[in-house]
Amino acid sequence: MSSKQQFQLFRFILALGISLGISMLIIFLVSKEPWTAISYLLLGPFGSMRHFLSIFAQATPLIFTGLALSLCFKSGNFSMITDACLYISAVLTAALAIRLSLPFPLHPLVILLLAVVMGGIIGSLPALAKLYFKANELVTSLMLNYVFFYLGLFTISKYFADREAGTFASLKYAKTAVLPILVKGSKLHLGFFLALLLAVLFSILLYKTRFGYELRLSGSNPSFAKMVGISSSKVILLTQVLAGMVAGLGGAVEQMGMYQRFNWQESPSYAWDGVIIAILSRNNPALVPFSALFLAYIRVGADIMSRKSDVQNELVALIQALLILFVTAEAFLSGWEHRREVKESLAAADTALPATEHRPATASAEPVATKADLVEATEPAATKAESAEANGLVAATADLVEASGATAEKSDSVDAVKTFPEPGKEEA
Amino acid sequence: MEVIAGRGLYQIYPGGVLANEDVNLSVEKGEIHALVGENGAGKSTLMKMLYGEIAPTKGKILVKGEEVEFHSSKEAMEKGIGMVHQHFMQIPSMTVAENLVLGTGKSLFVDRKKAVEECKALSEKYGLQVEAEKKVSDISIAMRQKLEILKALYRGAEIFILDEPTAVLTPQETEELFVQLRSLREKGHTILFISHKLQEVKALCDRMTILRDGKTMGTYGVESLSEADISRLMVGREIRLDIEKEPFSPGKKVFSGKNIFLQGEGGKAILQNLSFSLSEGEILGIAGIDGNGQNELCQVLVGTLSANGAELQLFSQDFSAFSVQKRQDLGISYVSEDRFLYGSAPRLSLEENAISRSYREKALFSFGLLNSGKIQAFTKKVLSAFSVKYKNTKQDVKSLSGGNAQKLIFGREYEANPHLFILNQPTRGIDVGAIAFIRKKILDMRKNKKAVLLISADLTELLSLSDHILVMHEGRFVGYLDNDGSLTEEELGLYMLGVKEDSQERIGEAYEQ
């Protein structure tokens, strides 16, 4: 693990600690039985097998959307069409689960396949609009989300609604169109492992293939990617189609794994949860399942807490918000990081730089350097005298480290100006 | 009397870049004090600390003997420090007078009439002629610079920091600026003049402080040092690179480009009818003031800009219609003018940046997937062949010094073993060691019978490396010169400024059938 990764891990754990700490403080302020509430929040999910397994069930759709959005953000595209992809694919799943009659393994397989295609098609729309009309993908995707949401709602209530249900619900799905439950009495279904598999595949795609490299390069510095000869249109389109396909799959899996009727009268917030997951995972697919499980754990805990104590489960939103605030705040702990860098670079400078002469008057007596001298002179081995001097300066470094603490805050603002914005974080 | 001073100043940027190290500076009232040093020596960093834009990591700043700790440039302004940035801090859509008073008044609205009066009065008083009612977008660069000085004066500045003010000026405008600066000095103002042009420092300044590698090399009266002494203090040794270049013996023709035209927005011609060719073992230099079409020419050759009708050939194969990557595969390498914008992805690792050409090659794959061991080995090979100083191959390119980042980029393109190597400002703003290293590699290319197109703003570099030099002015070639040892920088300068121009026949010789 590089020192940078160590720093990021440390920062994440600290951010988590602080956000949980603040949340607990609030529990103490509002609750008459704070200890009960806290213990249900943190330990409740481990209280029974059913609760424990529901963490995995709840994490499943979050992994799908988290992967979709990580991929988009990594490539520097801020399409939120994931929402529509998921919703429409879920509608399609409902339609096929109701109307299609096929034997068991075939029925869900056909549905999954068609849902993936549907997700890909819808995912491509903002990308195409961007390529052909230079329309900002964030705006078009958010608008299209409404279009597709109402289209889906219309389809269900017009053609598939169960008029006897008394509330908004579709007809029941065929018994053949279900994903197998893995542990009896729980909601853990096959979809979770499908999601894990996808996380692995996406990691490979992103870090082990040509396209993944092109995607990362385009996302990190589009101007450089252009010079390298990477087609930005290809990256934009393919990324968003892939993201749409994953989201579509997520919608189908969720419907067949968790529901017997379609009753999403409001669009589920999985796409927005996906943004949270992508941020927590720093757009790294390998970390997406962990972030999703963590979020699901907090939610299951909060759910139990709200049922068994006097604290509402809206507290989850608070923990989430605080966590994201600290994880994304570039300046959080950067003073600490900067101090370490100061120490390192001073130590390096003292040993690497040759001693410089302050002898202008005599300097002209030096012979003109030849080519060979010039090249060699640039990497001189540190002489004994220099390293002795270096030791002296290392001691001085300690003061410097302290001094920099006071100025850390100011240097942060310098950083903001100096460094390039990282797309995934700034605009997400 | 000492008006502004820095004592033991350190500045370490995030990422661990040591920009200033134990810097000492002392400026007397009423002098023009030069701050000289190479690009990247830490001049701008020092200025930013004095002007309160960044806080020193360690060290003291004294203004009129009083220790200060600025939290913003506003506080520096209140102490009478004014800065003229290289990139003007102005709003182009507003008038000169509006820009002058912007952000100073207490009331919510700008009194335009009063602003114009004040602008005229101030302009009169200091002899800095500006047109108060014109929009900034409509005035010349020189006038914008005067406005920048007026802005500082308006805010009560007594100490002026000018960051390479002559970089954007013609020689005549520079002369005029010097007259104005001298008159400011007579009025008792103090000027800190940043430059790396020694003649200007000699002509204008009283004393100078020399910076090298982020350290002060001492303060001297300008009379006491010769230009050779100054340059030695600036760079550590005289950079003489009229190194044993083997005699020019061109081989087969490698590249030829014919009728390269390029139109910009609004139909303005950016490149006009450029034709030239390159042979094996030839270094063709392109001189010209920045922004005369050099970058666009590179982009046309690399394939990121398309010039309709141009005929581009490599070993007689027409590649005008090829994509960027197909051109690379054909044997074209390119080092761009801006290493962190076009040359690398600064936030990605050394590995990810090193493979930007080879990521398409089978050599880095096993079982159809990129192999991290192979990537690391390849990266290390490039890094060590170009003696890049690094900690590990996973660190960000951003954390390398300019010279090391440039060596990585240069090395990546060099390792592709191209037939045509296009170098756009290959040594701009990097340390002397890296410059020498890269120049040596360029000559190695020549020895290995490669064709090198060298675009550089550094005339010494062009004169010491090139076999021929083409001069660009406003998108045209205006001179084709044999670099036979008698060519001087002054001569080149005349072409670059458009004063001198060769005949069409002579320029046509750059293109051989």
Write the H/E string of chain A, N to C: HHHHHHHHHHHHHHHHHH
Instruction: Tell me the name of the CATH class of the largest domain in chain B.
Output: Alpha Beta
Mean pLDDT of chain A: 80
Biggest interchain interface, per-side counts: A-B, 60 and 77 residues
What is the fold-level CATH name, i.e. the topology of the domain at 45-310 in chain A? ABC transporter involved in vitamin B12 uptake, BtuC
The fold-level CATH name of the largest domain in chain B is: Rossmann fold
Report how far the terminal alpha carbons of chain B are from each other: 68 Å
Domain ABC transporter (chain B): 4-238, 255-499
Subcellular location (chain B): Cell membrane
GO molecular function (chain B): ATP binding; ATP hydrolysis activity
Main location (chain B): membrane
Report on the architecture of this protein.
Chain B: It is a peripheral membrane protein. The complex is a heterodimer of chains A (428) and B (513). Chain A has 428 residues and is mainly α. Helix content of chain A is 73%, strand content 0%. In chain A, helix 1 packs antiparallel against helix 13 (315-328). Chain A is globular and about 75 Å long. In chain A, 44% of the residues are buried. Chain B is of the alpha/beta class. Chain B has 17 helices and 22 strands. In chain B, helix 13 (402-415) packs parallel to helix 14 (432-447). Classes of the chains: A mainly alpha (428), B alpha/beta (513). Chains A and B meet through helix 7, helix 8, helix 9, helix 14 and helix 16 of A and strand 1, strand 2, strand 10, helix 8 and helix 10 of B.
What is the topological layout?
The complex is a heterodimer of chains A (428) and B (513).
Chain A: H1 3-30, H2 34-43, H3 49-74, H4 82-99, H5 106-133, H6 137-160, H7 191-208, H8 210-220, H9 222-228, H10 232-258, H11 270-280, H12 288-308, H13 315-328, H14 334-352, H15 360-363, H16 371-377, H17 384-418, H18 423-426
Helix pairs in contact in A: 1-2, 1-13, 2-12, 3-7, 3-10, 3-11, 3-12, 4-5, 4-6, 4-10, 5-6, 5-10, 7-8, 8-9, 8-10, 11-12, 14-17
Chain B: E1 2-13, E2 17-28, E3 32-36, H1 43-50, E4 58-63, E5 66-68, H2 73-78, E6 81-84, H3 96-101, H4 112-126, H5 141-154, E7 159-163, H6 171-186, E8 190-195, H7 198-204, E9 207-212, E10 215-221, H8 227-235, E11 253-263, E12 269-279, E13 283-287, H9 294-302, E14 311-314, E15 317-318, H10 324-330, E16 332-335, H11 350-354, E17 365-366, E18 369-370, H12 372-385, H13 402-415, E19 420-424, H14 432-447, E20 451-455, H15 459-465, E21 468-473, E22 476-482, H16 489-496, H17 504-508
Parallel strand pairs in B: 3-8, 3-9, 6-7, 7-8, 13-20, 13-21, 16-19, 19-20
Antiparallel strand pairs in B: 1-2, 1-4, 4-5, 9-10, 11-12, 11-14, 14-15, 17-18, 21-22
